[in-house]
Amino acid sequence: MTIFVVSIVFYLYFKVRILNHKNPLYMHYTNGKARIALGVFIASFGINAYGFYQTQFALFVCILFLILGGAQIVHGYKVFKHYRGEIIRLQEAGDLD
Fold first, then answer.
1. If DSSP codes are grouped into helix, strand and coil, which group holds residue 22?
2. How many CA atoms lie within 13 A of 5 on its CB side?
3. Helices within 1-97 (DSSP H only)
4. What pLDDT sits at residue 97?
């Protein structure tokens, strides 16, 4: 239950932080972190649904949510990692504020 709340709060926090950034690199970087938080929320929701109902249908939903959550986490991590490298590279070159 705590993972639900923490992950959805992080998701909303990162989505709101995107509005504060004017630089598209920071926007994509923050969006990657938001996707990771969303993936954790979806995966934990699926696990909780199976733990609560423990039926065959709940198992199907759990597996589906784990796949969708895992896909969000993997994609978010790739976006986060890529744009983190770009931001570091531009900061070292002095081209980024």
1. coil
2. 2
3. 2-20, 24-53, 56-93
4. 64
